[in-house]
Design a protein that fits this description.
The structure is a single chain. This protein has three helices and four strands; from the N terminus they run H-H-E-E-E-E-H. It has about 140 residues and is an alpha+beta fold. Strand 2 and strand 3 form a beta hairpin. The longest helix has 17 residues. It is globular. The relative contact order is 0.23.
């Protein structure tokens, strides 16, 4: 069983310009690797842990400029691995639980498939940090 820490490390190591939402690709750079990764990241976490998908609006000076996705798990724990992508003038407002459509995503399908494959490869290659995986003393 993989922990959230294991998955977070694998996700962060898997982001790239090629997993970024094409609408945000011009703003993506290695110094801000979370930029444009929210939708695909939330879906990958949902694949692994279930829970709910949460949608908010990105606003600049009160005007809507985009959307932002993150996850909420059964205990009410909200996990947003891509929150750090936003500039100081960008605010995320609202939090609406949305149903995941059945089947593969219609937007960013290639980016999602690529991120999911990379995360899986990282997790397969890396040892877990869970106590059960620790060597016996």
């Amino acid at each position: 069983m993989w922990t959230l820490v294991d998955v977070e490390q694998a996700v962060r190591a898997s982001w790239g310009a090629d997993t970024c939402d094409p609408a945000d690709r011009a703003d993506w750079h290695p110094g801000n690797p979370a930029r444009g990764q929210c939708g695909v990241t939330a879906l990958v976490l949902h694949d692994m842990f279930g829970g709910e998908l949460v949608l908010g609006e990105v606003r600049v000076a009160g005007e809507r400029t985009g959307s932002h996705y993150w996850n909420r798990f059964g205990t009410g724990l909200e996990v947003d691995l891509t929150r750090g992508q936003f500039r100081q003038d960008e605010d995320v407002v609202g939090a609406q639980v949305v149903q995941r459509p059945s089947g593969p995503p219609k937007r960013c399908r290639e980016e999602y498939d690529l991120l999911r494959a990379r995360v899986s490869a990282h997790l397969t290659a890396a040892p877990t940090t869970s106590p059960a995986a620790a060597p016996a003393p």
